[in-house]
Amino acid sequence: MSTSVKINADLTGKQVDPTLYRSMIGSLLYLTASRPDIAFSVGVCARFQTNPKESHLTAVKHHQTLRKKILEEWKRSMEGESSNTKRARPNDHHDHRFLDIVLSWSLADIYNENLYKNQVENIPQLFESVQQYFGSYVYPLLEETRAQLHSSIEIISEAPFAEVIAFDESKPYGSNLYDVKIDSWRNRFGVRGKEPYKTLPGDIFVLADAKPEHVSDLQRIGRQWAFVTVTKIPEDENEDNSTCTSFKVKALKDTEVAGVHKSLFVIFLINTITNKRIWNALHMSGNLEIIKTALRTNYLIEEDCGLCSAQEGGSWDEKFVINVTSKLNESQTKAVLACFHKMHCNHKSAVELIWGPPGTGKTKTTSTLLFTLLRMGCRTLTCAPTNAAITQVASRTLKLVKESFETEFEIDSLFLSLGDILLFGNKERLKLGSDIEEIHLDYRVKRLTECLGPLTGWRHCFASMIDLLEDCVSQYNIFLENESFKERELNNQNEIKEKGGGDESDGSKRKCK
Q1: Enclosing H/E stretch for 266
Q2: Are 451 and 458 in contact (CB under 8 A)?
Q3: Distance of alpha carbon 373 from alpha carbon 383, whole angstroms
Q4: Of 24, 37, 123, 162, which cross-links 33 as Cys (Cβ 3.0–4.6 Å)?
């Protein structure tokens, strides 16, 4: 479904069976895990489950056709993978790093929409093991990365680029690491109107002997090029990396581009930091108890612990929580209450999963939960996979705190103490606005530096106050003397001005005569 297509409530449309519509939506929601390209459209269709119309059902049927095709492909892959499959399964080689796979792709691979056709399987409703759970998302991640590269290469003429002025092999030799120095980045503002490009670790470049204007330029006979990725940026470079001209890159194998041609160019495609972090999470080892608990087959149907309910009798002030969640809908309120029930239970798992399609208010629910925990005096650590997600949660939570302060105490939120809320992370990547800057760690450190400074800080103010209290009489006499001196100086200046004005008037009269 195109993002330009508008689907509304269609109040005059023909109504369809809500049960059928909900079941179709439910099956598609599991499909979005392996097909992120339909997550938006499925989320839009999911908004009309209470009163679906024929127009909504038509849109859903389009995705059902896609679902049937994927299931058929999945069944064929279960019978046996195609004999012409060129690549080994990443799960068969746990040490096979993510970037090695990406850098090994050819242009034909990137443009091949069926590259992982037989490997992207249907995400099951239940998982038999943690390994099966992790493995279900490996190929969808690779497919998503391939699609990102495909989109970037399609608009390579608009991508930021720079001419290479130095390209030397880096230590340890033989590791395919190279030190690169460029003249300057050009076309930094040309990527679909996005923010200016800044060099970051994880960037994927095309290293070529000429600046390509189209993908066909890379396919010309005699043209030399390769994919490389940025591994390190020197610490002495500009702090915001906006003018970074030196960095270290890694290639999959010895590149022949630098040795043959004098002119070299690097062209930015995508940044893979987020994808690589997801890859590492899918291959992590260690304490997986939380994930195992969330994957338990009976987890979603567990009822409240009767023992805790009988012992506590709602001693954690459920009325207070319900009052705080008054602006949430029924499902959001239930999610918050379920978290508090689990938090105060000592007999069952303390893991609660809040999930839903896009637009269902997960951020709003999470911020309300955090605000309630803050009011109850709980210390909570909140993490998110993206900077935008953590910024949105922090902004909403801070807004709730300020609104509550103004409502309860009828005092402007400027007088609100926010010492119990702390946001930390890279300020530039978080893109902090003035509304949440005051809770950022760097901002707090800057303010404390001013407060603890030798001339501007608290020590200077305290010393002045102590001197005044210990010797207030003499201090007051000194103050009076200073004021008297200032007054005499002012009177003398006024007299001089008056005399000067009189002399000027006498001179003018003489000139007239």
Answers
A1: strand 264-271
A2: yes
A3: 15
A4: 123
> Residue 336 in contact with residue 362, Cβ under 8 Å?
no
pLDDT score, position 287: 73
Candidates 377, 368, 300, 287; CA nearest to 329 is: 368
CA distance 386 to 430: 9
What are the distances in angstroms from CA 74 to CA 35, 112, 318, 395?
A: 13, 18, 47, 42
Rounded CA separation 432/199 (Å):
20
CA distances from 208 to 224, 242, 257, 264 (A): 6, 22, 7, 6
Residue of 417, 415, 441, 413 whose CA lies nearest to 427:
441
Tell me the HSE value of 218 on the side-chain side, using a 13 A CA sphere. 21
Q: How deeply is 183 buried, as exposed, middle or buried, from its count of CB atoms within 10 A (0-12, 13-18, 19+)? A: exposed
| Whether the predicted model's global pTM rises above the 0.70 cut | no
Tens digit of each residue's pLDDT (9 = 90 or more) over 5-45: 567 778 788 888 877 777 777 767 766 665 666 777 777 78
Residue ranges of the chain with per-residue pLDDT less than 50:
1-3, 74, 77-96, 192-193, 238-239, 241, 297, 299-302, 310-315, 511-513
Within 13 A of 8's CA, how many CA atoms are on the CB side? Answer: 4
445 with 463: CB under 8 angstroms? no
